[in-house]
Fold histidine kinase.
Amino acid sequence: MRIQNKIALIFTALSAGIILALSIFVYFFASESISSGFFHRLEVRSDIVGHAGLQENKSLTSIYYDIKERHLGSLPYEKHRILPDPTDEATRKRLALPSSFFEAPQGDIPARFFNHDTSYVVLRIARDKRKIMVVSSALDTYGMQEMTNLKNLLIIGFIIAMVFVFTLGKLFSNEIFKPIRRIIRNVKGINAHNLHQRLVVEPTDDDVEALSRTFNDMLDRLEVTFEMQNNFVSNASHEFRTPLTVVSGEAELGMTMPGLPEGAKESFLNIYKEVEKLEHLTTSMLSLAQTGFDGKKENWEEVRIDELILSVKEAADRIMPDNHVTIDFDQLPDDESKLVVLGNLALLKAAFSNIVLNSCKYSDNKPVRVRISADAKYVIVEVADQGIGIPDREIGQIFVPFFRASNTARYKGYGIGLPLTHNIIRMHQGKVEVHSRVEEGTQFITFLPFKYSVFS
Ligand code: ADP
């Protein structure tokens, strides 16, 4: 879950807890207050009814009732029972109330009970040695309605508050995380090819500023390390070249020496061949180092991809004369400008040669089809073979330097060609896609932006 959502949820849960506690408090406080008011009103009526019941004089009794009706009115379902003898078991049973009910009132102080939505009041009244007990009951319909309304109001209020709090929480956390998202976006765009880029540091004097500075410091250190490593590979490859050229020259000269025994000639030939391979390897490593880091863009020119592919085919014919590479021009775009890319001819040739020669090598010279086409932005070169394929789980690694798939044991190679190709294509703002099935074949699709699309 994203941190923004987490914050919004925690914020909402906290607010829910607080609002819920407050609502419960309000509900019970209101309920207590309404019920206490109602009991009080019932007690007053009960007291009047009790005193009326104690009057011997019937006209006084009716005055009591008259005052009660006139000034207090009746409560809903109001009932009063006068127990002339509170200890009388028969009367108690008739009322079907718990016996503790009749023992509860202490002296003049009435007892209150609430049972099945009905409020009960029990009152003892004594006068002129006469003692009676009044049991009054009524239904607080108005109070119950009030409580139902309050409950509904609190529930609706709670739901609305939650929606409001969650929305606000999301907006709030979104706003707080804006700079972090900007940093993530910027950091994502930084790789070995543009390690010189830095994050924009806004002087906000907060954690975000500290984070941006920390990233930039880390990028400084990474850049220095990358540059050192690259310079090392570059210099080493460069330094290897001269002695290798000398050795291959000497071997070539040795082979042509007159009167040389056959065995020695063969040795010179072996030295020559192996040194050639080493030269190729050091040249590839040098190119890999040069293209892998903030690609150098000198010697860039307009390159026609169809012509380039033809020259790659010529090179393949020289290196692997038994190849079956065919070029399919059927989907060539009518607009010739879609075949022109801006780039380094030598590097692009090396990139496509690697792909085509690999296809010949890993298919033991079975047919390889090269097709050139274009879409709205890219000129597309598709190289398809019917070779050994690449195991599914290894496809993602074939552009990693020195990686070789597990099914290549019987083929020679160093795992440098494709990483170099990848770097070259990326340096030209293009991309390479690979589709492969073991024992069926492999398809490399290269996309290069044509010259005018780069500037448009
Ligand atoms: P290598 O010198 O091993 O050919 P590359 O860098 O050119 O090195 O290729 C890397 C790996 O990618 C190869 O070792 C091989 O496993 C795989 N690969 C490249 N092209 C093909 C292909 N056309 N068919 C099958 N596997 C291939």
